[in-house]
Amino acid sequence: MSVRPRMDCDIFHRRINSEHAHPIMPRRPNLGKEHILSREDLQQLRHSLAHLSMSAVRDIYERVYQECRITSRDFPSARAVQELVQAWKQLRKWQR
Length: 96
Fold this sequence. Notes:
Distance between the termini: 76 Å
Low-confidence stretches: none
Order of helices and strands: HHHH
Helix content: 40-55%
């Protein structure tokens, strides 16, 4: 029966000089004052979308969809996402 040499657990948990004791969290990007549509603005948008043709709403949907793409540097604005959702809802109403 062979006896294994005892491994000191601290060997595996030592830090090198370049490592930090506490992880560094990245800062949130400063988005500034973001324009968010109010309930009244959303109601006006729904009303105007309802009075457009289906092809016009699809064009709006496609435009806003492109604005909402998440890239490595850009994040979509809340307003763009709100417009995308409203256009999607109108298209779904007409599909039923």
